[in-house]
Amino acid sequence: MGLDFAALAPSYPFILRGIWVTLQIVAVAAVLGFLFGVILSLMKIGRFTFLRWIADAYTSVFRGTPLVLQLMIIYFGLPQVLGIEIAPFVAAFSAFALNSAAYVSEIIRAGINAVDQGQKEAAQALGISYGEMMKDIILPQAMKNILPALMNEFITLTKESAIVTTIGVMDIMRRAYIVGGETFSYFEPLLFAGFIYYCLVMVLTVLGRLVERRLRQSD
Amino acid sequence: MIKAEHLHKSFGDNEVLSDITTTIEDGEVVTVIGPSGSGKSTYLRCLNLLETPTKGKIWIDDVEVTDPKSDIMKVRENIGMVFQHFHLFPHLTVRENITYAPMKVKGKSKAEANQIADRLLEQVGLSDKADAYPSRLSGGQKQRVAIARALAMEPTAMLFDEPTSALDPEMVKEVLDVMKSLADSGMTMIIVTHEMGFAREVADRVLFLDEGKLVEEASPVTFFENPKTERAQDFLSKIL
Ligand SMILES: Nc1ncnc2c1ncn2[C@@H]1O[C@H](COP(=O)(O)OP(=O)(O)OP(=O)(O)O)[C@@H](O)[C@H]1O
Ligand SMILES: [Mg+2]
Questions:
Q1: Whether B76 contacts B46, CB under 8 Å
Q2: Beta bridge partners of B188
């Protein structure tokens, strides 16, 4: 047997259209996950024990269970409880955003904690308020630790997004699978899908390197 | 005037400061000396409330700052602090390090803040470094910038926690010289230091702490020539 990529040619556009779907899910989830992650991280480093406890518990649950389970609970489980239907696309980016927020909050918390404690003391000794200290003194320094790790998180998100196939979202993965079923030949479309994911990840990796280089220049 | 009354500080079960009562008058230069771990840093950090005293009161002029109703930020604004490891903001230039707090905390305009920075940089002999980042400076230069940064808030008193301990020996003098001229200008200063020669020359008074207690309090001449307590005698015989 041989691989016949020529026979796949008519299906290329169909699979390629999945890039847009995947990117939409990843982009929306990344933005929402980042914003929610920032809030969670502020809860974690703040002085209110109760909020810290909630944020820690949230992180623990979302990191301690499979992502595909979270996705299925939102798509198949929640409608049963809420009595409303949730569109696959909405379920997909919600699950990823909620899951990503847990990881992002840890990344930000760790990045902030890695900033020398003396910076905080120096700011306090000058009478600088907590908010301004965070915004102008601590976060700009923490960004050096945070950005590379965030980039990794986005790369993971892009790859993991393939599991939205399980709830019927027409992403790259699902399209490749459908083409495989129609042509009775899975290997070529799946390889092609793999190639697309790899390219996406490479683009993100290069972007991440550029950002890192920019950060290092300011040292 | 900075007054501490029956000050106590514990970390968990560890009592680090025990019943410290001191009064620092305006314009006075006081050095705090004592063995490592005796609570010198903690004492200093209690005065500007970087640490919250477990018991006791602190007065700055006529205001009891340990009163829960008092504005801690206002207190810190008016007391400058210089750290052993400088703690300059590495992502800001020397000028920005100095102008940030006057602008954000005191609402000075950029022009006013820059004027203050220029004057202070001249005072500490670093006018040519205004636009450099801290990573480009030597330890002694960093510490002089840190002093300028604290002075930019126009504090009524300055706290120094071992300002020369992290410096190479050849840089100690440049920092001590800045501090000396500050003392001559009438600034109220409380200085934790291991520089006994400096303590002797510049201080109006020496506080000797040991195991969290204020063991001895005297003029430098009395303290260094005729220490009263055995613990002070012991300490001095080890380091002099
Ligand atoms: N944040 C803290 N938590 C717990 N213990 C602390 C804390 N800060 C200081 N201590 C303890 O308090 C004691 C006194 O510390 P402090 O730093 O005030 O001593 P010091 O006289 O400044 O010593 P050194 O000369 O080494 O700087 C030490 O035993 C130290 O371990
Ligand atoms: Mg100390």
A1: no
A2: B157
Instruction: Identify any residues that bridge with B63 across adjacent strands, giving them in sequence order.
Output: B60
Q: What is the pLDDT at residue A1?
A: 59
CATH number at residue A213: 1.10.3720.10
Q: Residue B99: closest CA among chain A residues belongs to which residue? A: A126
Which has more pLDDT, A22 or B74? A22
SS3 of residue B60 by DSSP: strand
At A85-102, the pLDDT tens digits run: 999 999 999 999 999 999
* Ligand 1 lined by B193 (C-beta under 6 Å): no
What's the sign of the alpha-carbon dihedral A120, A126, A130, A134? negative
Cβ neighbours of A182 (radius 10 Å): 11
Cβ–Cβ below 8 Å for B83 and A121:
yes
| Token code pair at residue A22 | 């995947």
Checking if the pLDDT of A6 tops 90, the result is no
pTM of the model: 0.85
Any domain includes A83: yes
DSSP A138: I
Q: Assess contact for B12 and B187: CB atoms under 8 A.
A: no
Domain membership of residue A159 (yes or no) is yes
> What are the residues facing B189 on neighbouring strands?
B29, B158
Whether A1 is covered by a domain: the verdict is: no
- Full domain range(s) for residue A188: 6-218
Half-sphere exposure of A18 (CA within 13 A, CB side): 31
How many domains does chain A fold into?
1
Whether ligand 1 lies within 6 angstroms of the CB of B85 is answered as no
Q: Of B104 and A46, which is predicted with more confidence?
A: B104
